[in-house]
Design a protein that fits this description.
Blueprint lengths: L1 H33 L1 H36 L4 H41 L2 H37 L5 H36 L2 H8 L5
Length: 211
């Protein structure tokens, strides 16, 4: 049941990250010309899409890697320590990327709501407020202990040195592979959307007098 719930959450995260990448791609080239806060907003969305895909890929790898380590006859205690270390690394990466970018998106959504005062902007601002508050509280509760465990494993963890080396190398490898997977997936979707959509042409079609 727990694994099924995790897979559902990962699937939802994948869909959201795909949507973010598509949205970013639709305005990527144009944002370079417009510049300013619009360009920052698009870059922030791109970073969040990469982080979202990274989280999905990292947890998939975390589900698979223990079986590989068992085949390699790594003892169960070392595998459990690896899972904790890798999970902490992934969590800290997500915190570092999602919390700061989330603050920017949250503030922008509040600005849009106060300027436009529409139902859609109000719902967006409300959701972003809830999400940012939830993520910030979660970071305050869990990030210090996760960071402490990572430092302990890197510089003074329990167990044999050989076991710690396996834990550290596998954990870092998981994170690197997941980041590369997230980057290439988000970039591929973004570039495809960028090729297929022209914001200026669309505006010209909708508003013939637009200049």
């Amino acid at each position: 049941m727990t694994v099924l719930l995790l897979l559902l959450v990962l699937a939802l995260n994948f869909i959201i990250s795909w949507a973010n990448s598509t949205y970013v791609g639709r305005y990527w080239s144009e944002s370079k010309q417009v510049g300013g806060s619009f360009r920052v907003y698009i870059i922030v969305g791109y970073i969040m899409a990469i982080a979202g895909f990274t989280m999905v890929y990292s947890y998939i790898l975390l589900l698979i890697t223990p079986f590989i380590l068992e085949i390699a006859e790594v003892d169960r205690e070392t595998i459990l320590l690896f899972e904790q270390f890798a999970s902490d690394l992934v969590y800290l990466f997500c915190v570092i990327t999602i919390i700061p970018t989330g603050f920017y998106i949250w503030i922008r959504s509040l600005k849009n709501f106060f300027e436009q005062k529409t139902l859609s902007t109000g719902l967006t601002a409300g959701y972003n407020t809830f999400a940012q508050l939830h993520n910030t509280i979660d970071m305050a509760r869990n990030a210090p202990s996760a960071l402490g465990r990572v430092i302990e494993t890197l510089f003074g963890g329990k167990g044999k040195k050989k076991d710690n080396t396996i834990i550290i190398l596998c954990g870092i490898l998981i994170l690197i592979l997941a980041i590369f997977g997230g980057y290439f997936t988000a970039s591929a979707i973004m570039k495809k959307a960028d090729r297929e959509y022209d914001m200026f042409a669309d505006l010209q079609q909708r508003y013939p007098d637009y200049s």
